[in-house]
Amino acid sequence: MNTETEKGANRHYVLDTSAFLTLFEKECGADTVQNILEQARRGEAIVFTSFVSFVEVFYITFQEEGEAAAVNRVNLMNRLDIHTVESSRELGFIAGRKQLTGFLLPMPGLPLQQYHTGRNWCTKILNSTN
pTM for the full model? Predict the structure, then answer.
């Protein structure tokens, strides 16, 4: 997959678990997440997420709303125009070392800014032209 030129998109975003929960719960910032997903649907942006976001959305939703709601949300995520980054031993090792320092970037090389929304620490996605 060549994400630099795929569908002519030149914007790249990484959405974490907090972004999906913000969207599903219609919290402050949901419109921004929706806009990013609409850009991806139109081929104007490329969106990445980690496989961990699927696990966390399922687990958190299951705990709060039950299995049916959890399955529904994961099914919705599966229908989105996003690229899921799977894990590997190497990525696990890198993530573990980053976690020890208290700082973890979901995708190396993409410009991200950490911020606090009150409920969660979130990742603010900054536009990239690369």
Answer: 0.66
